[in-house]
Amino acid sequence: MPRILAKETLAPDVVRFWIDAPAIARKRRPGQFVIIRTDETGERIPLTIADADPAHGAISLIVQAVGKSTHKLNRLEPGDTILDVAGPLGQPTRIEPGMRVCCIGGGIGTAVVYPIAKGVRAAGGSVAGIIGARTRDLIILEREMSAVADPCLVTTDDGSYGRKGLVTEALRMLLGEGYGFDEVVAVGPLPMMQAVCSVTRPLGLKTIVSLNPIMVDGTGMCGGCRVTIGGEQKFVCVDGPEFDGHQVDFAEVAARLRAYREDEAAAMDRYRAEIASA
C-alpha cells in the first residue's frame, strides 16, 4: 500500500502530503488526478496531483478537510499507509509550447492551477498568476506560484493580505494593463469560476475550469460525475476534469454537489462522536 512520506500543514485544515507512488509519479501530467481510499469502508476521494517527483517516486496531494473522509485522511502521519491510490486519471491539460496563460486559483483551487502553471512554464510559455482566498490564513502555495508566474497577484476578500478584493478584479486589472492571454485557467469554488467566466465571455477569451463533482469508480461507468457541457452530457472522470467554462452548466453542477449535503453532515457528526469517545 502507498506510504505517506511527508506531511505539511499549509493552512487551517489544509495539508500537503507526499506519497510513495512511483508509477503515478512517472506517468502523471498536469491536470490529472488520483482517487484514493483510506480504508475498506472509506469513500473514494478524487484529488488533483499537485506535484510529482519522479526521481524519488513520489506525488504530492493537497487535502482540505471538509467531510468525514478528508478529516480522516488529514489525521494520517508520515509512515502511515493509504489503502488505494488509483491514477493518474482524467485528461491532462492541453499545453502548447509558448502559450500565454493566466492561472487563477481560489482557495484550495490553487493546488489545481499550480501544476498547470508549472507545466506551461516548462513548455516555454508565459504565466500570470492570481491566487485568492477569504483571508490571509487561507492563501496557499504563494511561493510555488511566484516561482512560475510573473506577475503573481494575491487577493483576499477581507484585505488582510495582498490586494483587497476578488480574483475577478485582479483579472480585470491585468487585462486593463494590456496583458494578452491565449486562455485563462480558473479553479476554485463554483461561484468564483462562474464569475471569472462572466469576465472573459464578452471578450471571447477562452476559459478553462476544472470540475470536481462526486465520483465513484473514476472510469465513466457509474455516471456519478456527469455534467452538462454545451448541452451535452460528459463525465468528469474520463472527459475532464477540465472543460470550457463558457459551456458549463454551473447551476446543474451546484445542484449535484448539494445532493448529499445532509448525508455528509450526518456522517461528519457520527465521526466527531467517534473521535470524542475514543
Explain this structure to me?
- It is a single chain.
- This protein has 278 residues and is an alpha/beta fold.
- The protein is built from nine helices and 15 strands.
- It folds into two domains: 4-89, Elongation Factor Tu (Ef-tu), domain 3 (Beta Barrel), CATH 2.40.30; 93-210, Rossmann fold (3-Layer(aba) Sandwich), CATH 3.40.50.80.
- Helix 5 (167-176) runs parallel beside helix 6 (190-200).
- The longest helix has 17 residues, at 261-277.
- The two termini are 26 Å apart.
Instruction: Please state the CA-atom Rg, rounded to the nearest Å.
Output: 18 Å
CATH class category of the largest domain:
Alpha Beta
Question: What is the fourth-level CATH superfamily of the largest domain?
Answer: Nucleotide-binding domain of ferredoxin-NADP reductase (FNR) module
Strand content: 25-35%
Q: Give the overall silhouette.
A: globular
Helix content: 25-40%
The total of helices stands at 9
Domain module tally: 2
Q: Count of DSSP E strands?
A: 15
Strand order of the largest sheet: 10-9-8-7-11-12-15
Largest sheet report: 7 strands, mixed
The CATH topology name of the largest domain reads: Rossmann fold
Report the structural category: alpha/beta
Mean pLDDT over all positions: 93
Low-confidence segments, given as residue ranges, are none
The assigned CATH architecture of the largest domain is 3-Layer(aba) Sandwich
Secondary-structure element pattern, one letter each: EEHEEEHEEHEHEEHEHEEEHEHH
First-to-last CA distance: 26 Å
